[in-house]
Write a structure and sequence with these properties.
This protein is α+β, with helices and mostly antiparallel strands. It is built from 21 helices and 8 strands. It folds into 2 domains: 12-270 and 417-449, 2-methylcitrate dehydratase PrpD (Orthogonal Bundle); 277-394, 60s Ribosomal Protein L30, Chain: A (2-Layer Sandwich). The chain has helices at 12-22, 30-49, 54-63, 83-96, 110-124, 128-149, 152-155, 160-177, 181-192, 206-226, 242-246, 253-256, 280-293, 309-315, 323-326, 330-340, 350-353, 356-362, 407-418, 424-435, 444-449; strands at 72-73, 80-81, 102-103, 268-269, 300-307, 365-369, 378-384, 389-394. The strands form 3 sheets. Strands 6-5-7-8 form a 4-stranded mixed β-sheet. A two-stranded antiparallel ribbon has the order 1-2. Strands 3-4 form a two-stranded antiparallel ribbon.
Length: 453
């Protein structure tokens, strides 16, 4: 890879901009190219599957009067919008189910970036290779910036998918638009000053607004920079710039580390269960015990989960009342997994959350924190009324890097999400187009295949 290394006079922001501008598609390993197709298929399933969710309906109703030219598809629906509003709405829908991909340490990488590259590809007729290149670059930028402030930034209460995702959106858009180094530096600065998202919003519609807003605002940043709109050249590293304002432990070296030695997209994980990844291990444990022993809810005296401290911090809602709140309740997740034998989107509906049978069992679920437990590890202990004890320790749940979902798993997940929205032949065509992405002359085909009548 021929890239100019940073010098002592370079800024962190400008160095990252140079990396993005100088990156080449031919330098991306084939495994990472394939991972981009996997990410697209997973993102499409999540976005189409949530396309008729109230969160998307309300947002579309609010913004439809202000749509510009019909440049890009709102996936899973018949409506088309200008690229800025399409990016916003597709970003919201792809994240609202909390079923989208997760980098092993930080962000949900696709939700802020994929809506941007897809909208631009449809509008400007970019190829599959160009879409992949921009997507990989965007993910690399957002994750590097996220890691530079993680975990202290997240611990303060910032939703890092929103705050860092905007940089990925700006970088990806800027790459497709052909920004030069100075323009890309400005785009990153314009993104920095818009960065936002609060963890207080978890369990509400606003959580999915974060990546949607990041997508729309990052795309706008690239458009503005393309036209000469200036920003600070030190937006990331300055004393009052993003890194040092957002974290007291900002590490700029993470951002300026040599580009191309590893790709953060290779560290991507895909969820088999429609809730936060931190509870997947104990859900997996419950499902395994259910398959092996088939305990009835009435037979269960108690269920105890032993989890990492982050689980109760993120999913400690004792009495959720809506489906979105249920995604942030380890108690609901375990109860519904035992009763229904699944943890898909149907199990995190408002109906499931309020089911008397689920509520009754949920009251017998407890969670104990073990500081030695890793984030994606867990143990489940089910005590039956006849005195038997069922116990299962899960070191790595399905969907983690150690136990990844296969391509076939992702196809089955996609079909399950879109089956009520797309006809089978259309769903199959969309799956094939995702796998064929590197060969597509018009990547906008993907978006058009995701439209409903």
């Amino acid at each position: 890879m021929t890239q100019t290394p940073p010098t002592s006079s370079d800024t962190v922001t400008r160095t990252l901009a140079r990396y993005i501008v100088q990156s080449r598609y031919e330098d991306i390993p084939k495994s990472v190219v394939h991972e981009a197709s996997r990410a697209l298929l997973n993102w499409m399933g999540c976005a189409i599957g949530a396309a008729r969710h109230d969160t998307v309906n309300f947002a579309l109703d609010a913004f439809a009067p202000f749509f510009g030219p019909a440049q890009a598809q709102v996936v899973g629906r018949s409506e088309r919008a200008d690229v800025l509003h399409a990016a916003l709405l597709n970003g919201i829908s792809s994240h609202v189910l909390d079923f989208d991909d997760t980098h092993y340490r930080t962000v949900h990488p696709s939700a802020p970036v994929m809506p941007v590259v897809l909208a631009l590809a449809e509008w400007r007729r970019f190829t599959g290779e160009q879409l992949i290149h921009a997507f990989v670059v965007g993910v690399e930028a957002e994750v590097r910036i996220a890691l530079s402030v993680f975990p202290e930034h997240y611990d303060r209460g910032w939703h890092i998918t929103g705050t860092a995702g905007i940089f990925g959106a700006a970088a990806a858009a800027g790459k497709l638009l052909g920004l030069d180094e100075k323009q890309m530096t400005w785009a990153l600065g314009i993104a920095a000053t818009q960065s936002s998202g609060l963890r207080e919003m978890f369990g509400s519609m606003c959580k999915s607004f974060h990546p949607g807003h990041a997508a729309q605002s990052g795309l706008a940043a690239a458009f503005m920079a393309e036209r000469g709109y200036t920003s600070s050249d030190r937006a990331l590293e300055a004393p009052r710039g993003f890194g040092r304002v957002m974290s007291s432990r900002f590490d700029p070296d993470v951002i300026t580390a040599p580009w191309g030695e590893r790709y953060e997209l290779a560290q991507n994980m895909y969820k088999p269960f429609a809730c936060g990844l931190v509870v997947h291990a104990v859900i997996d444990g419950c499902l395994q015990l259910r398959r092996e022993h088939a305990p009835e809810a009435a037979q269960i005296e108690s269920i105890q989960a032993t989890v990492s401290p982050l689980v109760l911090e993120l999913t400690g809602k004792r009495t959720p009342m809506t489906g979105l709140e249920g995604k942030f309740s380890v108690y609901h997740a375990l109860a519904v997994a035992i009763i229904q034998g699944a943890a898909g989107e149907a199990q995190f509906s408002t109906e499931a959350v309020r089911s008397p049978e689920v509520v009754a069992l949920r009251e017998r679920v407890s969670a104990v924190v073990d500081p030695k437990m890793r984030k994606l590890e867990g143990r489940v202990r089910i005590v039956l009324r006849d005195g038997r004890v069922l116990d299962r320790h899960i070191s790595e749940a399905l969907g983690t890097l150690a136990h990844p979902m296969s391509d076939q798993d992702l196809e089955e997940k996609f079909r399950g999400l879109v089956q009520a929205i797309l006809p089978d032949d259309q769903a199959n065509a969309l799956i094939q187009a995702c796998w064929d992405l590197p060969q597509l002359g018009d990547a906008g085909t993907i978006a058009r295949l995701a439209a409903t009548a």
